[in-house]
Here is the input.
Amino acid sequence: MKQIKGGGITWFKAHLVGVKGKVEKCKKVPIDIQYQIQKSIEEMKSKKRKVEEEYEDGNPCDEVTDLFHTQHIEAPHTATSQKGKCHIGNYFMPRTTPGAQPTLKSVMQSKEVIEKCDIAISTWMIDASVSFNATNSTYYQPMIDALYSMVPGYKGLKYYRVRGHFLNKWVEDVKKLSVDASHASKTVDLLFKLFKEIVMYVGPKNIVYIVTDNADNYVVAGRLLEREFPHIFWSPCAAHCVNLMFQDIGKLSEVTDIVSHASNITKYLYNHCHRLYLMRQFTHGKGILRPTPTRFATNFIALQSILAQKDALRALVTSTEWTSSAYSKDVKAKKCVEQVLDSNFWK
Here is the structure.
């Protein structure tokens, strides 16, 4: 076995790192140890250059060389030790993953240093208007871990690289979970097959709940999925269920007449800029939601909106500004006034 004799801590470091032209590189040294020792050598070189600049007279080389050769790894201190700070933690890559063995450096970090880091992160979030819920993301701590293990001098991603390469990469990953089923009929067998493929791709142990549409085929497919994976629960979309309930309620003749009545009032007021201007004068700038034919829950929200402006609308159609206007004599205007003043409509 080849032996290397002579030299001090400097040659030992050079052997571990593999400094070219000095000594043969050790083939068994781990990458993280190699990185930290390389960092130590660079720091010592920086100290040497600083000393040479400060001492222009004389020859400080002996002092610098002695400083460089006597650098060593100190043992951990006891509670009563008064020696210099321990540097063992500098020779290990930082670890922040829960459950991982912490480094001595991370254990000894002061509260001031931790707070400085927290302030830097929170300042960026506030300045960039990042939602505070972002800290609950499953990717938040892994991002911190990745940054902590990077070499010094790492520069963050630029705007165009995030919105370009990495956004496209993320989209491609999402597309792997997307299925274009527009060409096929949404049968129970097809839906169950698609749901099962997604579950197997994500991992059954990573899914505990699935929400789908409330149509019959989705209901049956959801029940089959529960039978296949007993730990996964299925339920219909609550918003869709409520919307279907309002749809059935909206089919009642009494409700249909009320919605049509409210729709006629809002349409007439919103179809002319001056009428809309007068309405906003009496409602103090507040608008009225218009009933729509497709979203049934929206119709009831619109009815609540117009009911809140009952007194303002009645004051509008009986005001001098309205009765003296040119369109007040119009047939549609008279119909609108009649509907607004109809007491049965407001019951």
About this structure: The chain has a mean pLDDT of 78. Residues 9-69 form one domain. The radius of gyration is 37 Å.
